Amino acid sequence: MVRKALTAAVAATAAGAALIVGATLTASPASAAAAGTGTGYLHTSGSKIVDGTGATVRITGINWFGMETDNKTFHGLWSANPWRGQLDTMARLGYNTLRIPYSNDALRPGATASGINDFVNPDLAGLSPLQILDKVIGYAGSKGMRVILDRHRPTAAGQTALWYTAAVPESTWISDWQMLARRYAGNATVIGADLHNEPHAEGTNPAATGACWGCGDTARDWRLAAERAGNAILSVQPNWLIFVEGVSCPSGGLSNVWDGDTSNDEDCGWWGGNLSKAGDLPVRLDLPGRVVYSPHEYATSVYHQAWFDDPAYPANMPAIWDHYFGYLSKQNKAPIMMGEFGTTLQNPIDKVWLENLMAYTGTGVGGMSFTYWSWNPNSGDTGGIALDDWTSIDTAKQAILQPYLIPPASSPGPSSPGPSSPAPTGACTVSYHQDNAWQGGFQGSLTVKNTGGAAINPWSASWTWPGGVTLSNGWNATVSQTGTTVTATAPSHSTSLAAGASVTIGFTANGTATAPAAVKLGSATCS
Description:
The chain is an alpha/beta fold. About 20% of the residues lie in helices and about 20% in strands. The protein contains eight helices and 22 strands. Strands 9-8-7-6-5-4-13-11 form an eight-stranded parallel beta sheet, with helices on one face. The radius of gyration is 23 Å and the shape is globular. About 50% of the residues are buried.
């Protein structure tokens, strides 16, 4: 069970997945004609997310969780539906983006993935959590989908109010994000980082111990932490979007509900859902056009908020959504991407809630972006779009979401367009980062930049290692080794390397940690 958002004062409990009879649905022709997921990397312009050509992009995605749990990989890999089949269905239904929650436990050297049906998914047998993630990202990209990585928990044990713990300090949070940014640099399928899931209040005011917004305490101020992590990520992958969730209570503490004094009680919302202070106190990053605010919003199946009992319901809801996050979009301050929202639909008022929320986001490519929680049927608070067989679809939920979905139209393509021609000799530079090392092996990231005047299509890179160093695994390219020479060829979803663009090739290897030597991009020797 995945426990979802809470109010500032009380914890939510809910149970039960939807038991609606499944059927196959396909995206509507009107949606299919829309712009899809854009070309190359994305950035922001006012309240819009735009691609490299300036075209507006709307993220209409879904969450597939499990990598943040003890399994350390996607749930449902135990089912009779192969992992590729599940992604095929998501794309066919119109979900153009996959939000992938993870915990730092899944990134540790030696982390082991569990809960995999090796008969149905033989290609995943024995792979690490990161290697499985590589395969899912690669196939999602081939479907034209985008991927947002979500640091959901420091450990598999559960969510935390702050972005760090004694066991997982801020330095680990940031360094792991940088590792992922390097790992997927040059792969435009991966568009950004959701820095930390659902920062929220703890402790009773004035003794607040939870995440605040704008309080100035560097140990608790989520806005300042988002700036530190966002800038660190952009320093190694400047093309990513930085998704920043809200808090629950801006002070980071809970109101004393027993003192009888309501005059000082705080305005609190869902965990991660309160962005009421972001307009006056925005997240400031070194690179413009990178911040997307990502609130969470839930129904009574998570917790029965007071606003559900308002006699004006549901007419009262747009003003509530405006207050907590919608104003940022309506005032053209920044884009909104609702990272999580969902319901079991077992309470009639939840159907009204979901219908009105979707209408609030707007129709067409200009509407607010979102990723629905969740694909998984085993979310105890919401159930999923998939039913318990991980194949059939909850048609009641899908019917409400369908008019707002913009299917993936094509592969995201290279990071920027350009004509194809061979690169002249010497038209590349190279940098190398050793990401990890252990007894008998190491992990590294090799970044090659095309400094020539034209795109290379298809690109390939090569390097040499001394005898005794052998390739174990590679990503962001098809990587192979013959003798002491390693060759990385372009993946099918991103064959062109534009002039001025870079690609980062990740690998693990056996032997003594050694930097690649004599690196070439095509026939050009890199400096």
